[in-house]
Amino acid sequence: MLKSSRLNTITYYLSHLLFLLVPMLIIPLIISLLYNEGNQLYRAYYFVILFTLLAAFLLRTLAQKNKIEINLTTAMLLCAFSWIVVSLFGALPFIIGIEKTFIDALFEATAGFTSAGLTVFSELDLLPKSIIFWRSLMQFLGGLGILTFFLLIASRAGGATWQFFSAEGHKFNVSRPVPNIFRTVKILWSIYILFIIAETLILKLLGLSFFDALTHSFTTISTGGFSHYDQSIGHFAASGFENYILIEYVIIFFMFLGGVNFLLHYRLFTGDYKGVINNGEFKTYSKIIIYSAVIISAAVIVLKTADSSAEEIFRKSLFQITALLTTTGFSTENINSSFFPAAAKMFFLLLMLIGGSVGSTSGGIKVMRVKILGRLFKRDIKKIYYPAHAVLPVTIDKQILDKDEIFKLTGLFSFWIFLIAAGGIITALFSDLNSWEAYSTMFSAVGNIGPSFISVDKLAALSPIVKIVHIIGMIAGRLEIIPLIILLNPKAWKS
Length: 495
Hints:
Membrane topology: Multi-pass membrane protein
Number of strands: 2
Number of helices: 22
Radius of gyration: 22 Å
Protein name: Cation transport protein
Helix content: 55-70%
Distance between the termini: 16 Å
Strand order of the largest sheet: 1-2
Mean pLDDT: 87
Transmembrane segments: 12-35, 41-63, 75-96, 133-154, 187-211, 246-268, 288-306, 347-368, 406-430, 468-488
Subcellular location: Cell membrane
Organism: Halanaerobium congolense
Low-confidence stretches: 153-157, 169-174
Strand content: under 5%
C-alpha cells in the first residue's frame, strides 16, 4: 500500500486509465486478424493487452481505495503522468509488432497521443493496416484529451473532477456549456465524434476507401496530422484520385473546425449563432487563415516560385496555412519546397507559434493568448501618452482580464520560448542540423504541429538524446508546460 495520499491517488487513477486503454488496444488486434497480418502482430497485440491489464491490476492493488483525493496539484501531476504512461504503453505495438527501437516507438506514440504528428516512420504505405490504424486511433484519443474521455469512468472524485478538465493545459479557464462536468465531457465528445462521422462519410463519397476515410478523419478533427502515406494528403493528387481537389477542400474545412473552440461548436448546435459570430478569438482565427492564404498565394504568384494555376496556388497555400495554424500538420506541398518563397517559410514559423483556438484540439500558444499579448503591448504604448492615474484594463470580448490571468499568460509564453530555445540549442549540439532546421523541429514539437523544415529521414536519423528532447517538448506543448514543471518540482510531491 502507498503511504503518500497524492501518490496513492495518482496510482489509483492511472490504473483506471490503463483499464481504459485495453479495449482500445483490442481494436487494432481485430483489424490485424481481419487483414490476416501474421502471427508476429497477433502475438504483439495479445502480449500488449495482457501486459497492460497486468499493470492496471498491479496499480489498483497498490492504491488504497479509501483515500482518493483530488486537488489542483494532484490533477496536474496526474495529467502529466497520464500522457507519459499511455505513450509508453502505446509504443509497445511498434516495438513488438514491427520491431522499432524503443526511442523511435516512444517518439511515434508520444506524437500520436499528444496529436503532435511528428513521425520517424518512413514507407508508411507499407506498414500493416493495424499499425496504421493504431497510429490514427492514438491521435483520435489524444485530440480532446485522454483525461476528458477518462472522466466519464473515473467518477469517484466527485465535484473535484473539474480539476482534471482544467488541468489539461489548453483548456484553462474555458467555461463549461453545462454545470455538470460529465455532461460537459459527453457534449464535447459527441460533437467531436459527429464531426469524424461526417468527414468519414464525405471522404468515402469522394472515392476514398472506408479505412482511408476513417483514419484520416481521426487525424483531421484531432488536428494530429498522421497520414499513412509518405506524401500525406498530397498522395491523392499524385495517385490520380479523380476528386483530389474536393478531398483537399473537405480536409481544409474539417481542419478549420478542429482548430475552433469546441464550446463554440456547442453554441452553434444550440442556435447561439450570434455568440459564435461575435466571438473575438473566432474572428481573429478566421481572419488569420484568410489573410495569410491570400498573402502567401500572392507571394507565390508575384515571385513566380511555382508554375501552377491560380486556383492550385491558392488551394495549396490555404491548405498549408490551415494545417499549420490548426497544428494539424497535413501537407499537400512540402513547406520546405521551392513552391513557397523564403518569406513564406518564415511566416509558417509564426503560424506554428500561434496555433489554434483555446478549447480546441490544436496546439500552439493559441490565438486568444496572442490577442491578449497584443492588447498588453497596446496598453503599454497608451501609458506613454495617457495620464499617470489613467486606468487601462486589458479586455477580451468586453470582459476585463484578471491580473493573475495576465501573469499566468506571460509566464507561460516565457517558458514556451525558453523551451523552444533550449531544445533548439540541444538539437543543434547533438546533430548536424543548422540552426534553422534545429529550431523548426522544436517549434513543431512544442507546438504539436508535425511538419518541420527537415525530412522524415533526417528526423529519424537524429540521436536518441535529440529525440528524447523532442518527446519532452511534445508532452510539454500538449500540457502547456505547467503540469510538467510541477512534475519536476519536489515540493509538489509533499502531501
